[in-house]
Structures are given as structure tokens and as C-alpha cells.
């Protein structure tokens, strides 16, 4: 995917997720199996995991290179990245790092969550405009589960992450 396609997929993925949550009843929105996150918490988790990308994409590239290095391999395709993420999920134990764990979220917070997430995606897209196609494959960011990934791969993950959490909500709601 090139930058234009990445931007379109980011918008589409988060728009679908937020519209799906917006159609849930209060009971559905706040339901979760024991020890799992409700739909609102899934949304809060996505906010917590996308917000750092705004700052990361705004760092000077020499700082990114100094702090994390540069890629020594080509970027994976979207499908390859998704497959690696799914494989890592099978061996993951417990919750993600604390900074990504959501607080309790009520149905009444949906509008605020939706507005915040939409603004974050818009800011990511604006920052992405300042990156070249080559830069997306050259620079790397750390991911808590995947390790070092290229910036392009991080964006692929970000696209898939909303789809993943929408599917999780759907699976949980089948249990009602």
C-alpha cells in the first residue's frame, strides 16, 4: 500500500469501527465476558494505542534513527504483518502494557470517544503527509508485541488493529 491507500484504509477502518459501536445498545456497549473489555474499553484501547503515533510521526527523522535505528529489511506486506500479529497474539499472555489498558468506559462516553479517535486519525494522516514512501520503509518504531517494525508496518498494524477490536466486540456479543 502506498501513502494514499494507507490514509484511505485508516479512515475506513476506524470509521467502520466507530459506526459499529455507535449502533450498539447501552447493554451491548457495556457488555463484556468476565475479565474482558467492553466495546467502550476496546475503543479506549485504540485511542491509547493510536495517540502515540501522532508524536512519533512528528519526530525529526534523525531522532527516530538515533533512538530506534533503521530497517535492515524490506517492509512486510499488509497481509504478512497481519499474519505475524495474529501469530504473536496466540502466544501473548495477559494484557498489553499498562499504558494501553483502558479504564472503565460507559455508554454515555461514546460520542467523546468517537470524536477523539477521529481527530487522532486525522492528525496521523496529516503527519503521514510529511513522509516519503522510502522513509516509511527506512525508519523503524518499536511495537510492544511485534518488536521493531517499519513505519509502514506500524501503519498497517494501526489499520488492522481497529478491525481486530471490532471483531472482538462481535465475538463477545455472540455470547449474550
TrEMBL record:
Q: Which SUPFAM superfamilies match?
A: DinB/YfiT-like putative metalloenzymes (SSF109854)
Q: Where is the DinB-like domain?
A: 10-167
Q: Which Pfam families does this one have?
A: DinB_2
What name has this protein been given in UniProt?
DinB-like domain-containing protein
